[in-house]
Write a structure and sequence with these properties.
By secondary structure, this protein is an all-alpha fold. It is built from 18 helices and no strands. 52% of the residues are buried.
Length: 456
């Protein structure tokens, strides 16, 4: 399928969108579903922590070690999986990753030791690493630049939906039929997604359900028209990608902010348990409330730059301004414990706002990759950044959480450990924004065929 002539400048983006089909949003829904399952599978262990602590005699250090095993494997997986997906393509690469992580999730039910859980979490981590490189590449293939942040925000909200479903179902499953079944049932959902993926997905050029008008709209960006005309392009090495300041902008942004989300995901149920005495199904609604707010933030974060761009603001400036506003919204989390002394739900609210801001940030930072890099490099750059985010999470867990939480737990002052963590969370995004601004002030698109890397 070949594109028609470029659309004339006097036709607005809104009019163009109204004239074409909506199949791209079906694809976005599939990516949303995959991301939901991805986060549901990884969130299960945090909700089963009280049951597993009793059965395997874990302390905070044991749990931190298992968490590190997941993050280390996830980080290493991120480095390689982007290359694999760029090579295999989104259809096969995404399917392979989902198939393997679903097996890994179910495999937790057959573990009988602490070491076994570390191995199972490592296998889950390396296979789950495929979701975001494949998802971002899919969005880049199926959406024009102006819609990518919104589409990314929508699919990324699946991480919140997964985290909402988990506290509403996992403790109930554990209480009624046992913790092992929680791993089996949630892991099996990946196979449902695989069936839908193979029925509905194909790249735009091969998708028979896609109208010509929508194909032209998807490829209406100038660089997309040129890429379609040229056809297949060679892959780009990691070493070349690392010579660009734009790559390091994304890498450092992920390295600094991803650990905050890992903290929410793995320690929020424990915080509610240790600070307010919530156990089992009691944590369901507070945890779900945090992730409901996160879902709103994810979609809203994708809409903010779109609104700015519709008002005539350049894409890079809209992205930067949106990310600065979002970074400022995280800071009130430093007051979470003070507010929690007044009422637990005030702490839940401020943590939920910070989590929503993180997801809004994610919708935009992921989109910076497709803003700055051609589609053939999107999965690879996303993988490099994902690896950096995982390494940041490992360092935070090993150097701060593991030592700090074990120490303060031993002297019965765990609230101080959480206060320090909330301080770190509050400042991380502002630091990341400043570094990204200096490394890629204008988010200049890259010509990978140029002989020398351009200025950012």
């Amino acid at each position: 399928m070949m594109p028609s002539q470029p659309l004339t400048p006097d036709i607005s983006a809104a009019m163009m969108a109204a004239q074409v089909g909506k199949y791209r949003w079906t694809i976005c829904s599939l990516v949303f579903f995959a991301t939901t399952v991805n986060y549901l599978d990884r969130a299960v262990i945090s909700l089963l922590k009280p049951y597993l602590e009793t059965e395997f005699k874990w302390n905070s250090g044991d749990y931190a070690n298992i968490e590190i095993a997941f993050k280390l494997a996830y980080s290493l997986g991120m480095l390689g999986v982007g290359r694999i997906i760029d090579k295999l393509g989104t259809k096969i690469g995404y399917a392979l990753s989902t198939f393997l992580w679903s097996l890994a999730a179910i495999g937790h039910a057959f573990v009988s030791s602490t070491l076994g859980f570390s191995v199972a979490r490592a296998f889950l981590g390396v296979t789950e690493a495929g979701n975001f490189p494949a998802a971002i590449k899919t969005i880049a293939e199926w959406f024009p630049q102006r819609e990518r942040a919104l589409a990314t925000g929508i699919f990324n909200s699946g991480s919140n939906v997964g985290a909402i479903i988990a506290p509403l179902t996992v403790p109930l499953i554990a209480e009624t039929i046992g913790w092992k079944w929680a791993f089996v049932i949630t892991g099996a959902l990946g196979f449902v997604w695989l069936l839908l993926w193979f029925v509905f997905y194909e790249i735009p050029a091969r998708q028979v359900r896609l109208s010509k008008a929508e194909f032209d709209y998807i490829h209406s960006d100038v660089d997309d028209l040129a890429a379609v005309a040229v056809g297949s392009e060679p892959r780009v090495s990691w070493f070349k990608l690392l010579t660009y300041r734009q790559t390091w902008s994304f890498v450092l942004g992920k390295f600094i902010t991803d650990p905050v989300w890992w903290f929410y995901l793995f320690w929020l149920p424990d915080f509610l348990n240790k600070q307010y005495g919530l156990k089992g199904t009691q944590v369901a609604f507070p945890v779900a409330a945090v992730y409901i707010l996160s879902s709103i933030g994810s979609v809203g974060g994708g809409y903010i730059p779109l609104r700015f761009m519709r008002g005539g603001m350049p894409a890079f400036r809209a992205r930067k301004l949106s990310m600065l506003v979002i970074a400022l919204c995280v800071f009130p989390i430093v007051f979470a414990q003070y507010l929690g002394q007044l009422n637990m739900w005030l702490a839940v609210l401020v943590i939920g706002i910070a989590a929503a801001a993180h997801q809004a940030w994610s919708a935009n930072i992921f989109t910076t990759v497709s803003d700055m890099f051609p589609k053939r490099a999107v999965a690879s750059v996303t993988g490099i950044g994902g690896m950096a985010g995982g390494l940041g999470g490992i360092l935070l867990t090993a150097l701060v959480q593991k030592r700090m939480f074990v120490y303060y737990e031993s002297i019965n002052q765990l609230d101080k450990a959480y206060f320090i963590m909330f301080l770190i969370c509050g400042g991380a995004y502002l630091l990341a924004w400043v570094l990204m601004h200096f490394l890629a002030a204008n988010m200049k698109p890259i010509d990978l065929d140029a002989t020398t890397p351009p200025a950012a």
